[in-house]
Amino acid sequence: MRTARGNDDPLDAGNTAGLVVDGTGTVLGCTPAAETLLNRPADDLSGRRVHELLADPACWPDVLAQRDGPVWEGSAVVRQGGGEEAEVLFRVLPLAPGRTGSRDARLLVLGAPRSMLAKWRQAHAFLEELFLQDRVGLAMFDKDLRLERTNTHLLPYTGVPDDLGGLRLAAFLRDEDARSIDGVLRQVLTTGTPQVGTEILVRTRVDPGAGRIVALSAFRLQDPQGRVMGVTALFVDVTEQRRGRERLDLLHRATAVLGNSLSLAETTGDLVDVLVPALADAAAVDIAESVFAHEEPEAHEDGRHLLRRAAVAGPGGEPLPVGAPVSVDATGRPARRMWSADRPRAAARGAAAGARTGPAADAPPSGPAGAHSGMSALLRARGRLLGQVTVWRTGPRIPFEKDDLALLEEIASRAALVVDNARRYARERHAAVSLQRSLLPPTTADTVAVQSASVYLPTDTATGVSGDWFDVIPLSSARVALVVGDVVGHGLQATATMGRLRTAVRTLADLDLEPDELLAHLDDLVSQLTDETAYAAGAHDHGPRTAYDSYGATCLYMTYDPVTRHCVAASAGHPPPALLRPDGSVGYLDVSPGPPLGVGGLPFEPLETEVEENSLLALYTDGLVERGRADLDEGMATLASLLTRAGAPGRPLQEAGRQIVSGLAPRPLSDDVTLLLARTRVIAPDDCATWRLDADPAVVAHARTLVVRQLSHWGLDELSFTAELVASELVTNAIRYAGGGSVELRLIRAGALICEVSDASSTQPRMRRARATEEGGRGLFLIAQLTERWGSRYTRHGKTIWTQQPLPGP
């Protein structure tokens, strides 16, 4: 067992080397320690004269000259048995009375090496100074943990007695605090393992307020034989250091939390959660009304700012809940204020001299019930008032201090920048979302071919909206085109690109191109946009172009014909559409994904399929099925399941779309989400009439007769004249350029009267202005004047010229 070294006086009789001599200086006896010190056996020492033991016997008179009384001390250099010399300090004590120099006198000479005595005196002085100083509390406890000795002020706090001898800590400390300290001391007393720097709360019985934090260090006391004597404890007041660390930690946590979000609601909510209970018992953040509207904050004409409570935390009884209006007059008001129930006060940093300090300016904000002190700091950024943060303390907590006020001001300055950044981000995001929504079509559409509804949700990330878009485009002959696309990237760049691509798709769709051909033209456009961007950025190296740059995009384009129920789809790197059939079965169209737009050089493969009436088509972007899933197939399987449950016939498509999106893409969204639902319709056979005619001018009259007869059957006699004339011109034009074979005449009644003439020629008709002397060339001009719309489109077997006339009103 490790024991303590003795700390007694080296010249004490029971603790050091000793010689018994007579009055003549003859050695009569010695202690074992003397044998060790002089390196001589007792037999060698006995009978010797003391001066013979000196290194220089001639110095004996000098040694005697140091005598100044019956008990005297001195120093000498002795020669040890091995010839070595050692300087010793000695003390002479008379044992038996006798005349000096007589043999009947007996003296005890105690000696110790000078180095040993110097160390003892140094240690003794150190121990005494420890008990005299008052910077560190020092206490010695016996084995029962009763105080035996303390320094001047063990704990200089109210309620600690001046005389602590024999007391237990529980006599003047609160029971729980005394038990905490006793537990540490008891552990040290039992195990012998020292405790260093254990921080403990100390509160006295007469002053049980916030108390003080002390760092307790303790070690066990043992005598040289290893017997436990007690425990010594050192107490250092670290209250201010602890509070400083807590303030620094709070500032660090507040800074970290404030940087987590650009949402104003989340930022203010996180701020009050950090302040309570770490700094205060209640907290509130008030934000300027203009900040909520994403505008620059401005004061009213009377100098007051209208704020709204954005977040609160703490006990009940807060008079102003979230959303309540708050009015603040910041004219001449200090940047920070602190008040308590007994002494309201304000502290300003950089406040102008002569600032207004009337009741309207200095009245503290009302706080929760029982609040006895509070602080507030203005949220200012870039010279503008954004709001204020206010905190209160209730109950037994001590009032706020100046250091707390400085901490709140520092947190407020950082929070103000975050709030301003959130305001500016919200303004930019609102502009981007508004721009994107303005570039998108209405969320619902009702055409002859389909009934559609869409759901679009912008991303919640800080990068802003992305380039998702959808469209429902009416085509000729009652057909419809369904489009969903996704531009790579986020922000205004992606939104602007989306707008350009949507416009291009509508323009190309108006040309009645096949889906694969339309995507090929769109692919060329994206490649051109990419090259233009690279050129504008100075990338003239003509090296290989990255396919997935900021202008890259995916797109799914499909057309549906309600007469034939034929659906043709083509994809440019986009997920396939889902199809819910009337019998409840669901599947995905096997559309070849193709390369994304902008890659160039690769064809797009169309897929033709037949769709039943009342089928539900679901077109979507990858943000709907990829969010939080490592496997795309998992998201698509979930979409199919939700589509089966939500897409029942008769259910509103908007309601079904919202249910599907909420099931697949809960907030927050890491990417834009777009879903387009389209329920197919079919034009009844009775509303469509088709005739195959020979390419002979003689059939023109027969064609007019067929048209008149069919319109009479439909009850559209008032359209007979114009329809007969239009059909005659179209059939005549087709026969002229058909080059043999046959032509097809078709009438469709579907919200309008549609007249189509198809032939095998690929020659497109062109309207021109005929001269006054020409007999022909006026047919298309006449058709344009008599119909609402007209046009032509290429087919796989030639071309079709079509016209559309409005039906008469009821």
Protein described:
The chain has 18 helices and 33 strands. The chain is α+β, with helices and mostly antiparallel strands and 810 residues long. Helix 6 runs antiparallel to helix 7, helix 10 packs parallel to helix 11 and helix 16 packs antiparallel against helix 17. The N terminus is likely disordered.
Poorly predicted sequence stretches spanning 5 or more consecutive residues: 1-7, 343-362, 545-550, 772-776
Q: Which fold does the CATH topology of the largest domain refer to? A: Phosphatase 2c, domain 1
- How does the overall form come out from the CA principal axes? elongated
Distance between the termini: 114 Å
The total tally of domains equals 5
CATH class of the largest domain: Alpha Beta
Structural class by SSE content: alpha+beta
Report the average pLDDT across residues: 83
Layout of SSEs?
Elements lengths: L16 E6 L4 E4 L1 H7 L3 H4 L14 H5 L7 E8 L5 E12 L9 E8 H19 L4 E5 L5 E4 L24 H17 L3 E8 L9 E11 L5 E10 L1 H20 L5 H12 L6 E7 H4 L11 E10 L11 E5 L6 E5 L4 E3 L11 H4 L8 E11 L2 E11 L7 H38 L4 E3 L3 E8 L8 E9 L5 E11 L1 H18 L5 H22 L16 E9 L4 E7 L5 E3 L5 E3 L18 E4 L5 E5 L1 H4 L6 H15 L6 H12 L8 E8 L7 E7 L4 H16 L5 H19 L3 E8 L2 E8 L19 H8 L2 E7 L2 E9 L4
Antiparallel strand pairs: 1-2, 1-5, 3-4, 4-5, 6-7, 6-10, 8-9, 9-10, 11-12, 11-17, 12-13, 14-15, 14-16, 16-17, 18-19, 19-28, 20-21, 21-22, 22-23, 23-26, 24-25, 24-27, 27-28, 29-30, 30-31, 31-33, 32-33
Helix pairs in contact: 6-7, 6-10, 7-10, 10-11, 11-12, 14-15, 16-17, 17-18
